Amino acid sequence: MASIARRTSPKRLASSAYIGCFLLFLRDKPNTIITSSGNTARSFFSHGLAPSASAFTPSSLTFSPRSLSPHSGVTLRMSSSSSPPTSSFSHPSTNLVTIPEAIRAHHSKSPNVKFIDGSWHMPVGPSPRNGRAEFLRGPRIPGALYFDIDDVALPSSSNPKKLPHMKPTSKVFAAAMDKMGISPEDTLYVYGMEGCGFVHRAYWTLRSCGHEAWKVKLIQGSMKEWKEKGGEVEEGVLKEDDERLFRVSEMDLEKLTPKYICREIEGVAQDGDVVVGMEEVLNVVNQYIDGKQSDGGKQNAVIIDARSYGRFIGTEPEPRPGLRGGHMPGSLNVPFVSLLDPDDLTKFRPMNEVRDIFTNAGLKGNSEENDQSQKVICTCGSGVTAAALAVALEECGLRKKEDISIYDGSWIEWGGDDTTPIVTTED
After folding, report:
1. Which SS3 state, helix, strand or coil, does residue 398 take?
2. Is 163:149 a contact under the CB 8 Å cutoff?
3. Alpha carbon 142 to chain centroid distance?
4. Is the preceding peptide bond at 317 cis, omega within 30 degrees of 0?
5. Does residue 192 carry a pLDDT above 90?
6. Is there a contact between 105 and 58 (Cβ–Cβ < 8 Å)?
7. Is 292 helix (H, G, I), strand (E, B) or coil?
8. Is the preceding omega at residue 160 within 30 degrees of 0, hence cis?
9. Comparing 134 with 157, which gets the higher pLDDT?
């Protein structure tokens, strides 16, 4: 050993030790790619793309003291695995993807990569847009499917209040997945058409109803950007009998036995209570009222309202007739449009800005003292834009997915019930 040490420079010994430690690290984290900054980054599998078999051969890994420098950068190929990327860091996100990333996934022609138009628009105004009609007319991403949040929803037989686009049952969701040709192994890329700031509900529904959460991606960018950056486009009007225009409401669900298996345990979603009802929300509101009256007390959850400030304080009318104005006592107001890029509503603002918007509205991070277990309930007019809050909260790192719920009935249910408490000024 002494003779080797004499013939090996201290610099080379240090490099060898570095490489040895690095290989031990890779042994324990086989799905990792190291980038030039030294951070754990996305794996091909997080985008539904498997590298070639040659990527796993020892010869594909090359090392040198220079290439392992934290400033020069090296990409280390990974072993084949279908598990999600593991990292102690919550960012960069593997769920929000750019247009170029989505185009690469589309060019892969992988049978396990599916593109889904999740466009939806408010059915109000003199000439409201309709996501299904726009998908029928085109343009579309070639091979894309359409996910209709009004159709893939809680059936009327289980929805006595006739609330719109409520989270579907497992059977309804599985039947829709079968009709769309989607399997649990597929990676789904969800997009919205130009100016659609409501696509988050389709993305949220797919992740919350049984598809593996890390296999559902939300494309940040419009069809215009898709075209500008070389994405393929399918033009032309679809035939009315095109299978992509199916409706769950026209299926005989009682006679169906779906093949798609939702990721559930004994009927309870693994990610916990992704939706809450009026009773749970009323408990949170009463807890706030009781705590305020006693000048103390800690809420188990905080409610965040995605509606505009005017609707929140009752100075603007609700778009749906017959609803009272105002908000739930103790709730915070974060208008969902404030989280979106004003130049392109299919994108979020930078996540540091999103985080600041939430904290400036009064939301504390779960890492702050005495706030470790506080959940967040997102609400809005009918449960659609609440999904934008839910996605943003997870992506900016203020809450984990399992700590975020949506009040599915939202203001249609709360504001339409004369017995629920409402305030029309700021608390």
Report:
1. coil
2. no
3. 23
4. no
5. yes
6. no
7. helix
8. no
9. 134
pLDDT tens column, 105-133: 999 999 999 999 999 998 877 789 999 99
What is the Cα–Cα distance from 232 to 103, expressed in whole angstroms? 8
* Percent of residues, the chain, with pLDDT higher than 70: 72
How many other C-beta atoms are found inside a 10 Å radius of the C-beta of residue 89?
Answer: 9
C-alpha triplet 95, 389, 129: angle, nearest 5°: 90
**Site of tokens 């017995």:** 419
Of residues 102, 413, 367, 78, the one with CA closest to residue 227 = 102
Average pLDDT over residues 138-148: 96
CA distances, 238 to each of 42, 133, 235, 316, 322 (Å)? 36, 10, 9, 40, 38
**Structure tokens that stand for 299 in this block:** 């809420």
Q: CA torsion sign, 391 to 192 to 409 to 181? A: negative
Q: What is the DSSP letter of 168?
A: P
- Any idea which residue has 């949506």 for tokens? 406
CA 15/CA 9 separation, integer angstroms: 10
- Directed axis angle between helix 386-395 and helix 351-360, to 10°? 110
Question: What Å distances lie between residue 317 and 156, 252, 379, 404, CA to CA?
Answer: 28, 39, 17, 28
Task: Classify residue 417 as exposed, middle or buried by CB count within 10 Å of its CB (0-12, 13-18, 19+).
Answer: middle
Cα–Cα distances in angstroms (integers) from residue 304 to residues 49, 117, 216, 293, 312, in the given order:
36, 27, 24, 21, 11
Output DSSP code: residue 140: B
Q: Residue 43's Cα: distance from chain center in Å?
A: 18
Q: How many Å apart are CA 226 and CA 223, to the nearest integer?
A: 5
Q: Amino acid identity of 233?
A: V
Please count the other Cβ atoms lying within 10 Å of the Cβ belonging to residue 7: 8
Angle between helices 386-395 and 200-208 (to 10 degrees): 70
Choose among 89, 88, 107, 90: nearest CA to 47: 107
